[in-house]
């Protein structure tokens, strides 16, 4: 049984696996207008309805396989200002039934997920700008959905924006095309990694990008031109070490590697490389893990390392001994959580 008091959706009957968005950005009326296709599966028997979270959305129609379905917005507004979109299915569905719903809708200016900026609020002063922030539970004012982290989803999107603006999303760009006599442009995105609904994000504006690495681009307004060069020393060190590890994945001798390889790393990178070593049961790294967890007190770093050290074949006693001797070093909450993990 799933439990999430912040959602009105029937999460114990229906699960979303994928969302497809087709939206047009209308800066004049400050709305997103279009449709959403939800790929769903029943996780209970005899399901006759779908309930989705919405907030300040105008629902125009709901269809399944081209047939219009009856729907209504629950008149009750919960403590988060949201309402449930109740959709009646044509017939009850058995457990494990996969189906799709297409919902035509538009957002409203009252939506809490979208921030609309006037040209005067931008650096360039020429074009409007919008960005979304769906965390924690504002995705429901961007699209009708199961707005809960109980389920993670993939998504795709086609976003139509007026020239000369550009759309960006928390997804990979997979193409763009001119439409409407070059007055608008369609940007296409795919997110193949499953994410919670609150990580769906959109930004539209007069944007220019600058690559700062093999996989990273910084986007901002082009006024003034982006001149800053970013220090890539740390990222280059990480990439070089990752390449060395990749080339050595079939080796039996790892003498070419040493703790000195990560001396330049900050705590985040150090903890990640130590995790890799612990997963590989690389015992020479054990003393360095102990040194790290007794010098770095943040739970986000030390708790996973304690847990992983304890789960190695020869590291369980070491993890317990290290924690027992240094328990007073940690914040009480961190100490309590680590103790539950390893004892």
Q: What would your notes on this structure say?
A:
The protein is globular, with a radius of gyration of 25 Å. The protein has 6 helices and 17 strands. Strand 1 (14-26) and strand 2 (31-42) form a beta hairpin. Helices cover 21% and strands 35% of the residues. It has 2 domains: 14-108 and 144-196, tricorn interacting facor f3 domain (Immunoglobulin-like), CATH 2.60.40; 233-342, Peptidase M1, leukotriene A4 hydrolase/aminopeptidase C-terminal domain (Serine Threonine Protein Phosphatase 5, Tetratricopeptide repeat, Alpha Horseshoe), CATH 1.25.40.320. The protein has an 8-stranded mixed beta sheet with strand order 5-4-8-2-1-11-14-13, with no helix packed on it. Strands 9-10-15-12 form a 4-stranded antiparallel beta sheet, with no helix packed on it. A 3-stranded antiparallel beta sheet has the order 3-7-6, with no helix packed on it.
Please supply descriptive tags for the structure shown above.
Immunoglobulin-like; alpha+beta; 8-stranded mixed sheet; Serine Threonine Protein Phosphatase 5, Tetratricopeptide repeat; 343 residues; 6 helices; zinc; 4-stranded antiparallel sheet; 17 strands; single chain
